[in-house]
Amino acid sequence: MMRAFSALRQRNFRLFWFGEMISLIGSWMQGIGQAWLVLKLTQSAWQLGLVGALQALPVLLFSLFGGILADRWPKWRVLLVTQTAAMMQALLLWALVATHSIQVWHLYILAPLLGLTSSFNLPTSRAFVVEMVGRADLPNAVALNSSIATLARIVGPGLGGAIIAASSVSVLFLLNALSFFPVIAALALINGRELHAQALHDERAAGWRNTWQELGAGMAYVWKTPTVVVMIVVVGLVLLFGSNFNVFLPLFATDVLHIGASGFGFLSAAIGVGALLASLWLAWSNHKSATRPVLIGMLAFCVLEAAFAVSRLYLLSLALIASVGFAETAFAVQALTTLQTVVPDHLRGRVMSVQVLFFDGSVPLGYLLVGWLSSSFGASYALLICALISLLVSSVGWLWRKSA
Which of 203, 268, 275, 290 is 20–30 Å from 322 (CA)? Predict the structure, then answer.
């Protein structure tokens, strides 16, 4: 069992991992609280979608520049700034709600500010993992990070809903602000001498070029490296078309399987459990990076998703959606590990920013596509179409694998 947590032997990673776990649970709690607050203020589903889009838009627009910052400065210092900024955003939101001053236009400003923080935080935190653990424990560390993200996705919303029912939504924002203290303290306690040395590139010694040249250097590397293209573009497109469960699951629970709110809860929990089991399995196995397992995982994901789309049996659908969650996490985490392994140190932040753009920044586009398909063809056919498109993309990646 200890094999599953081998990367925690590294002091710096152990500090960061436990701090990040608490912070992520708080962030998911705030997400639930923010959605509840928007509905309470506006009674409008459109406003709810607008606030979500405003929060996601900066990741789409600015994550590439976050990678440049991660390559320019010590990553733990960048993370210290981004985590502090996110804490201040949560504190301001709590103060507005607690004093009954909150209006919906405040959220139009605060949500993009949080998204801007994420656009710098995400590529930096992913690029920082290898500096904390080295290459030997990298697969285990990436999988452990995925496990706490999945655990937070399971625990955070449920805990947030219980707190809203027991007290008020303002408590959620205060608790989220407090949840940043452990990760900020962990970053402050990072021992720079224990970080695994990163080779300095010649461009650092010669002085920094301008931002656009640095961005161009990172994009050129991505485009000219087949392994990186497959891991970013192919995996990103599969996630774009196939990973839209937040939209699909409520529709399946009500219109397809006719199982109501409780059934929807079990479907959501099943996909979370499958993802958590995949993360723990990858952490235990500590697989080295390879393109073939990623492609096999994507093909399995597409087939399982198509089977879920046509299933009309609740128990079968429950098992299938758990398997979909397992397969999705398995190939996504292995793709991230492969990227972390093959990318040179001086370009890691910029490559991770491209990965964030394709994996995270494309989420709103996927939601819009799924919403249109579902309204036009129904949830079952829409998911089947998305699964078949993902299968086509995975097949192209499989044909491309030799060059990678």
Answer: 290
CATH number of the domain located at residue range(s) 207-404 in this protein: 1.20.1250.20
Tell whether the model's pLDDT for residue 245 goes beyond 80. no
Give the residue ranges of DSSP H helices in 73-134.
Answer: 75-98, 104-133
204, two tokens: 């650092």
Position 202 confidence tier, pLDDT thresholds 50, 70, 90? very low
Which of 70-79, 149-158, 395-404 shows the lowest per-residue confidence on average (mean pLDDT)? 395-404
119-140: b or e for each residue (b if 16 or more CB lie within 10 Å)?
bbbbbbbbbbbbbbbbeebbbb
What would the DSSP string read from start to end of 226-260?
HHHHIIIIIHHHHHHHH--HHHHHHHIIIIIS--H
For domain 1-195, the CATH superfamily is MFS general substrate transporter like domains (1.20.1250.20)
Q: Does the model's pTM come out above 0.90?
A: no
The CA distances from residue 31 to 40, 98, 152, 153, 403, in Å, are 14, 17, 12, 10, 41
Q: Do domains 1-195 and 207-404 have the same CATH topology?
A: yes
Q: What is the mean pLDDT of the chain?
A: 85
Comparing 202 with 186, which gets the higher pLDDT?
A: 186
Domain ranges of the chain: 1-195, 207-404
